[in-house]
Amino acid sequence: MQVQQLVGIVPWTFIAQLCNLFLQVFLIKKFLFNPINEMLEKRRAKADAEIRDAQQAKSEAEAVKTEYEQNMQKARAEANELIAEAKKTASARTEEMIKEAESQAYAIRARAEKDIEQEKKKAVNEIRDEIGGIAMDIAGKVIEREISEKDHEKLINDFISNVGETS
């Protein structure tokens, strides 16, 4: 019978082993699994919070990037406007300078023509006076007589009018 007892089940030992098993499961669950589960839950919550923070940071970065791109587009548009305005101003200033130069050239030309005309009249008058004097000398020698002042003026004026018509 001794062999039979080794293979057989003793009810009180079985109940004691079952109670021991339940007690071990309860203690392991209470002191081991619950703290481990709480720690895992805290890690999961922390990881979820970090993921949410990362997603929020990513969305903020995208918003900043979008704002930056808009600002860059505005800056480019303003720069293009400034360049266009500068070109317009330069073109207007160039046209103004050209008109001013043309008016100065016209004024210089008008002054030069006026000066030329005055010099021409002055030269003609000087030549008339010289020719008049020479004509008087020649006429005096040819006629060999004295001409009165009145006759002298008449001869000069006739000669000058003939010279003026010729030139």
Show the helix and strand layout.
Elements (H helix, E strand, L loop, with lengths): L1 H6 L3 H133 L5 H18 L1
Helix pairs in contact: 2-3
In short:
It contains three helices and no strands.
Description:
The protein has 167 residues and is mostly helical. The chain has one domain. The chain has helices at residues 2-7, 11-143, 149-166. Helix 2 (11-143) packs across helix 3 (149-166). It is rod-shaped, with a radius of gyration of 63 Å. It starts with a helix and ends with a helix. 0% of the residues are buried. The mean pLDDT is 85.
User: Uncertain spans, ≥5 residues at pLDDT below 50?
Assistant: none
Q: Please report which band the strand proportion falls in: under 5%, 5-15%, 15-25%, 25-35%, 35-45% or over 45%.
A: under 5%
> Radius of gyration in whole Å, from Cα?
63 Å
Count the E strands. Answer: 0
Question: What portion of residues is helical?
Answer: over 70%
- Counted by DSSP, the helix tally is 3
* Count of domain modules: 1
- Tell me the major beta sheet: none
- The geometry reads as rod-shaped
N-to-C CA distance: 174 Å
Structural class: mainly alpha
Order of helices and strands: HHH
Mean pLDDT: 85
Features of the shown structure:
167 residues; mainly alpha; 3 helices
